[in-house]
Amino acid sequence: MPLSPLEHDRRYGELDQVIRAYAGQSADDTPDRPSRALVAYLRHTWHTRPWALAVAERQLREYAEHPPGRLRLRLGEFYPVPDVGLPEGEIQGWLRCLADHIGHSIEQGEVPPPAVPETHWEWHARFPELAQFLGGWFSQDMPDEFADHDAAVADYRATTDARLTARLVGELYELLALDLEETDYALALAELGMEVDPPAPYSPSGWLALIAGRLGGPRADHPPKETDGGWNGRH
Question: Are residues 102 and 137 in the same domain?
Fold first, then answer.
């Protein structure tokens, strides 16, 4: 019978995260050098979920040692490794290579230093709410759905939980803190799903700063609360 979501996550959840990191990237890992995709996975996971690395190493190695047969794959009882551009006969060795690199990183404490995201997966893993905002409100359909960019921002704020909006503001400031060139900010916006240009006369970073300021202020329907009791600055 097909795997339940719980069983899938228990047996293959972190393996799936590793494989997703290869979307649009080459699976060109060698015993001496991890690929760009794996370095991106290691960098992000070390700095956000370091405990998950040991899970990934174990799941990769177990899958490589006990690959599913065609029948079990067809029945949905095993995780099907997506096409990464390698011949079927090389997949097991490649998975072992990934497990070896992750295990070495853990044992030696080799942590990739913080850096600008290098892959599509890493951009979305690092800035998930910003990707939701840009891809959902600033796709190529935006001009048909909203009068202008300000209207799209206002709609996001009106329809999104305040806690997610706060998360978006934090991601906006984190992106601005990377201090990229404007051309690189434009590429970052495209990677994160934006399919229209920022409004004139703003540069990409200028528009991001503008949005962060607007969304970071109090909502009109939620004015700041006055302090009850004690010293409140009034006589």
Answer: no
Q: The pTM is what?
A: 0.85
Residue 207 vs residues 167, 171, 213: alpha-carbon distances, Å = 18, 14, 10
* pLDDT tens track for 111-148: 999 999 999 999 999 999 999 999 999 999 999 999 99
Q: Which of 80, 108, 136 is the last residue of a domain?
A: 108
Q: Residues 77, 102: contact at Cβ < 8 Å?
A: no
- 90 and 30 in one domain? yes
- Report d(CA 83, CA 101) in Å as an integer: 21
Distance CA 119, CA 23 (A): 8
3-state secondary structure of 30: strand
19, 51: one domain: yes
Answer whether residue 224 is part of any domain: no
At a CB cut-off of 8 Å and minimum separation 6, what does 227 contact? none
Residue 235 has pLDDT above 50, yes or no: no
**Per-residue pLDDT tens for 49-78?**
999 999 999 999 999 988 766 545 554 555
Quote the tokens at residue 97. Answer: 């290579």
Q: Please give the residue range of the domain that contains residue 186.
A: 127-216
The two three-digit tokens of residue 193, written as one number: 């799903």
Please give the Cα distance from 176 to 150 (Å, whole number).
Answer: 20
